[in-house]
């Protein structure tokens, strides 16, 4: 979460300086700078995600050295999930806090022709971004570990796409539907990246017995759970 906040601080500084050096009366230019600031923010977030991966790799090596069996007690997949979730939670909290501040007044959404679905749509968008950051974290860490640079490019591109779609608001159908489709597809991708399979999902749903172990939701990620 701290790494995400630092990336946002740097992006905000870049945007602020750009605005101060530009013609503030030119509405089209200011909108372009806003789009530019969002793109810079995405790129910085992914850069800091990579920096956090390198930091965790160093920490993982240290934990492995002091481990009894020469292995780290925390797996890379666990660190990727926690990192992505942290990025998502702080991103969601930061983006939705302004919406909550607007909700207490003094104006009322919809009274001047604004969409009455502003708050509920913002909530769904925030939820999607939290999930996306979690999925991106899993995919990003795996791609860095296996040096799959095309996966890194897809993560950055999908992040840019998700942020760019929000500029279509208040045309919510054009932004919310594609973002949730992207969330679903990215979720499937991260599931298989983490070691999941359709076979394990079917076993999980059927509550099939395998020896002394009961197949639970953990089996979807190939983690056995004893009775």
How would you describe this protein?
Keywords: Membrane, Notch signaling pathway, Signal, Transmembrane, Transmembrane helix. It is a multi-pass membrane protein. This is Gamma-secretase subunit APH-1. Potential subunit of the gamma-secretase complex, an endoprotease complex that catalyzes the intramembrane cleavage of integral proteins such as Notch receptors. The chain is mainly alpha-helical. The protein has one domain. The chain contains seven helices and three strands; from the N terminus they run H-H-H-H-H-H-H-E-E-E. It has a three-stranded antiparallel sheet, with no helix packed on it. Helix 1 packs antiparallel against helix 2, helix 2 packs across helix 5 and helix 4 runs antiparallel to helix 5. The longest helix has 40 residues. The protein is globular and about 65 Å long. The C terminus is likely disordered.
Please provide a brief summary of the model:
With 227 residues, the protein is mainly alpha-helical. Helices cover 73% and strands 3% of the residues.
């Amino acid at each position: 979460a701290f790494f995400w906040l630092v990336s946002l601080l740097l992006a905000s500084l870049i945007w602020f300086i750009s605005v101060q050096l530009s013609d503030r009366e030119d509405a089209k230019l200011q909108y372009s700078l806003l789009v530019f600031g969002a793109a810079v923010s995405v790129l910085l977030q992914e850069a800091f995600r990579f920096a956090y991966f390198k930091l965790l790799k160093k920490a993982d090596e240290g934990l492995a050295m002091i481990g009894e069996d020469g292995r780290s007690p925390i797996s890379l997949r666990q660190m990727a999930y926690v990192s992505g979730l942290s990025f998502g939670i702080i991103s969601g909290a930061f983006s939705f806090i302004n919406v909550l501040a607007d909700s207490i007044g003094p104006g009322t959404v919809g009274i001047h022709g604004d969409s009455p679905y502003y708050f509920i749509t913002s909530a769904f968008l925030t939820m999607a971004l939290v999930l996306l950051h979690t999925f991106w974290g899993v995919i990003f860490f795996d791609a860095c570990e296996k040096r799959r640079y095309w996966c890194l490019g897809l993560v950055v591109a999908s992040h840019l796409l998700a942020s760019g779609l929000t500029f279509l608001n208040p045309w919510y159908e054009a932004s919310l539907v594609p973002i949730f489709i992207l969330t679903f597809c990215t979720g499937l991708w991260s599931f298989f990246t983490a070691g999941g399979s359709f076979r394990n999902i079917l076993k999980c749903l059927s509550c099939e017995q395998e020896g002394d172990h009961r197949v639970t939701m953990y089996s979807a990620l190939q983690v056995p759970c004893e009775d």
